[in-house]
Amino acid sequence: MIRATAARCRPTSSPGSLSFEVEADAAPVPAGDIAVALGALNRTDPSVALAGFAAQGASLAGVVELLGQAAGGWFGEGPVLHCGTGEAITIEDSGVGGHGRGNRSVASATRVPRTLSLSHYDPARDWQIGVQRAGGTGPASRDMRIELPAAIDAGTARTLAEAALLRTDTERTRRTVHLGWEALAIPPGSRVRIAGTPGIWRVDGWKFEGMSVSLDCVALAPEVAPLPGSGGRALGAEDVAIGRTILHAFELPPIDDVPATTPRIAIAAAGEAEGWRRAAVLLSIDGGTAWQEIGGTQGIAVLGRILTPPGRAAPQIEDRRNHVVVELANPAILLDHADDMALDAGANLAMLGDELIQFRRAERLDARQWRLSGLWRGRRGTENAIGSQVEGDRLVLLDSRTVATADLPRGAIGTEVRLLAEGAGDIGEAAQASAVINGISWLPLPPVHLVAHRLTDGAARLTWVRRSRSDWEWEDGRDLAPEPGGERYRVTLIPNDGIGWAVETRAPEMTLGAAAIAGGARIEVRQLGTAGASPPATLTLPDQGEPA
């Protein structure tokens, strides 16, 4: 058992904090001695030893009652805790006062519970709560439970449960003994032997009336021999190092076909060791001047870094020429292959640098290194990041169970957000990450298939195709969902030999006059939405007379 022996203030990292020194007893402490140490008793009989006890409750009296119940004892003058069948005073039922002799009563057997359960802290099961049950044979239908906040082994707990059940049965038997004045010296709580009657009794109360003393006695149960008990098998957590937090943050385009209403970042975290579980996260959108709590990380993400980056490739077809070699932070993580149907359903989706990819095959090279191939590049509008990766860039496998998201203010586009994450293993310094918000989570996508068709008079007819962030599935016979507020585009002309200009249109086409493009020009087409303008789709027009 551990008891506080000294308390004093001493310098710590937090001024004014209070530190306690505690000392543990060399051996288990008897229950009665604990009650004496609490100041509730003057002395005690020998009682059951407890390896630990939580002195908790609404009152000291309640704690002492619980200790007495655990010891199978009762309280007498002193105050003192009596336990077991010790020394007893022999008395003779003389029937003084004409009350007669041998007054005996036995309460109904229904007072004895059907079962008695005793809960305790089991040291063999990493101090988890254990329960031992004792079963009766009487007609009662009720159950009884004793919640003992003590550390004892399963065998001791079973012995206490059996003893408590035996006491409830034995104490149904009571005797009333009528004695002379000399019995005034026998206080309640004393043990007595009644001449001619087997067993030991305890005095539950007495009454002085009519020049005689009446003692109400309750039969004491015999001691229960120690019984074996099994607490079951402990399923304790493996004692492993926690490690520092690894944190990644990046802007994430919608991957669930639900358009975002504000910019959004993804937060993925894991640990340098297998014992890491979570970390609290702070976010700043003003360069670190002010920080706000945004909760905690979500699960243990699959993180890594690029060892061999992939080259450039077209986003329209599967990249079977390039591959990427990555090193995972956790060697226990296993990656898997994905077939066409799984890829179409979103399997093996990962943020590789700033490019969202999917991979068909994952080949393990050693404990941490994997080669990913069969790449689907530039997913969800991240084609501008294809080929931008360098050695050391991040790999984050996207999974809603392990990657959290946080919405940002609309004014965050064009800024850098900073994050801090601190877990149990981040002593002294929190993990840091930052993300540049360029709008890929919220802004419209740039148009595709921008083409200039030469006309006979030297003009050029521009056409393009709109894209939507909420329509990534190719469905036959179905057009893209309409944009809120309708289609709008900004067409910018930057001539090689003149002043540029811009114009807006609601149709995915525009005709440019011959004079405007005679010397060649650069064309930029942006889709406009409620969030702002998309990145541009670009096209270069040569001088007149050259093919577009």
UniProtKB/TrEMBL annotation:
InterPro entries: J_dom, Rcc01698_C. Residues 95-207 form the Tip attachment protein J domain. Residues 301-396 form the Rcc01698-like C-terminal domain. This is Tip attachment protein J domain-containing protein. The lineage of its organism: Bacteria, Pseudomonadati, Pseudomonadota, Alphaproteobacteria, Sphingomonadales.
